[in-house]
Amino acid sequence: MAGGGGVFCAFWQWAMGPREQRLLELLSYGLVALGVVSALLLRFIPMPYGRYSSRRFGWLLPARPSWLLQELPALLVPIALASCIPAWRLPNAVLLSCFILHYVHRALIFPFLIRQGKPTPLFTFLLALLFCIYNGYLQGRSLSTYVEYPSDWLKRPCFIAGFMGWLIGMAINIHSDHILRNLRKPGETGYKIPRGGMFEYVSGANFFGEILEWFGFALACCTIESLAFALCTLFILGSRAKQHHQ
């Protein structure tokens, strides 16, 4: 294992440089483009998971294991990249920890809270898996290797405001998911209009929370990679929220 880890870190040390920085920038633009294209497609085709799950998009996979496996790369890839950094700067460590903490919940906790979740089509699972690898590399590599912050970054208004947005957004997202899980009584099927929490103000409170979370993260990071992720989230989840509202 130690030898394998050494080879892994040696590869990323070799890859580091202006070319990879340019690659990260291009991948950021690609992430925004992905969000725009997805939003346009979702005007005509519902996102094929959850209530819109369909066999037209491939074999149907059990909800819990598919969710865990598709989200796991967004947790493991940044951790693996971070393990190759000999000395961490505190702002970078705090910001990457925010990203990792989200996916600790999404990959290791949320799947086991799902109650009778609708199965996930294979096509949707593969798209989500590739997205999490892509974005895990994008955020993990930029924050672990390239972004340099002033020593007082954690005291600056943009970090403080962004961190609070990230924290509040994550709390809204988790609380809204809790409300959604408890809509049905044992034995009930079908869908209900959720009440309570942010659902009193917006119809897609879970989506609103996650969008707020990643825009807060982007403000705290002030990187093109984090902004691209926030915009992509807005385009995709905003479209999903509109479908739900209708």
From TrEMBL:
Pfam family membership, one: Steroid_dh
KW rRNA processing (keyword) present: no
Catalytic activity: 5alpha-pregnane-3,20-dione + NADP(+) = progesterone + NADPH + H(+); a 3-oxo-5alpha-steroid + NADP(+) = a 3-oxo-Delta(4)-steroid + NADPH + H(+); androst-4-ene-3,17-dione + NADPH + H(+) = 5alpha-androstan-3,17-dione + NADP(+); 17beta-hydroxy-5alpha-androstan-3-one + NADP(+) = testosterone + NADPH + H(+)
Superkingdom, taxonomy of origin: Eukaryota
Entries under Gene3D superfamilies matching the protein: 1.20.120.1630
Occurrences of domain 3-oxo-5-alpha-steroid 4-dehydrogenase C-terminal (ranges): 119-246
Biological process terms in GO annotation: androgen biosynthetic process; cell differentiation; sex differentiation
Gene Ontology CC: endoplasmic reticulum membrane
Protein name: 3-oxo-5alpha-steroid 4-dehydrogenase (NADP(+))
E.C. no: 1.3.1.22
Its membrane topology: Multi-pass membrane protein
GO molecular function, a single term: 3-oxo-5-alpha-steroid 4-dehydrogenase (NADP+) activity
Family: Belongs to the steroid 5-alpha reductase family.
